[in-house]
Amino acid sequence: MGMGIQKVMLTPCKSEKELLEHFGCYGFEKQLNFYEIIGDSNWQIDINQGVIYFGDNITFSIQLLGTFSLSSETWLWSWNNEASQLPTSVIEQALSLKSYGEENDINLFTSAQFDTTQEDLYKIGVIATGMFNTDGYYLADFGHGIALVTIKKDHINSKNNNQNKISKIFPKFITNLFGSSSSESDNHEQKNNQTRIFEIFSQFISSFDVDHYQALKYYLIAKDYQVKQSDLTAQTELVAIKGEQRVVAKFDEQSRLISLNV
């Protein structure tokens, strides 16, 4: 539909929580990668061209999802911003979300304007990033408000120093969740990739209220892991495989993560 919802969607989501569980962590990872690229660069948007510039030499195409008023603390979807006379080409994702909300009764996507907080912009950002497989989102503060745009550029890659940056801000209890059953012959790069998955997921579940089992399952599916079919009904253990990589996660009866092992 519209801008292309990602393959991780197994069944339509019917709530904001389900959207976060399906798409949030995948979008969260992309956002961390994006921040590593732009750093603290200044920004400038050309809305008619549908681009944003960072610094002197970084350019991305954008989709404008909406704007947040700092004075009234209200969100306005771009598809309802008639006063700005926005080109249709930059609000396609917002229109696609509106259609999805209408089909699945999700008020977040169908309410043209509503009271909210600045923190909710992160939720909308990671959901949209995961749903449309963009390279991240950006909160462009223009003084009296914030424009939320998704970012797209083909050659964005993760940065090695991203892993070190993440580890510095984890809650200490998170470190106790991780174990390892890897053999010495495991590929070092695969180990790093899996370790990073665990770190990103841990930061995600400390930032958003989600069912840990569901969120990890859909995150791994988005990362091209095969979740064993027998584990889709039992919510106390999840086994996922990608080539020679294997992830085993255990959860308590409330689907809270207890351990992650590779």
Features:
single chain, 262 residues, seven-stranded antiparallel sheet, 12 strands, 24% strand
Report on the structure:
There is one protein chain. The protein is α+β, with helices and mostly antiparallel strands. It folds into two domains: 16-152, no CATH class; 161-261, no CATH class. The chain has seven helices and twelve strands. It has helices spanning 16-38, 92-104, 107-110, 119-132, 161-167, 188-207, 212-222; strands at residues 43-46, 51-54, 58-69, 74-77, 113-115, 136-141, 145-152, 178-179, 226-227, 237-242, 245-251, 257-261. The strands form two sheets. Strands 1, 2, 3, 4, 5, 6 and 7 form a seven-stranded antiparallel beta sheet that branches. A five-stranded mixed beta sheet has the order 8-12-11-10-9. The longest helix is centred in the first third of the chain and has 23 residues, at 16-38. Residues 155-186 have low confidence and may be disordered.
Q: Could you tell me the radius of gyration in angstroms?
A: 19 Å
Q: In which range does the helix fraction lie?
A: 25-40%
User: Gap between N and C termini, in Å?
Assistant: 36 Å
- Count of runs of 4 or more consecutive helical residues: 7
Strand percentage lies at 15-25%
Secondary structure: number of strands: 12
Order of helices and strands: HEEEEHHEHEEHEHHEEEE
- The general outline is globular
- Structural class from helices and strands? alpha+beta
Q: Any idea how many domains?
A: 2
Low-confidence stretches: 155-186
Biggest sheet record: 7 strands, antiparallel
Mean pLDDT: 83
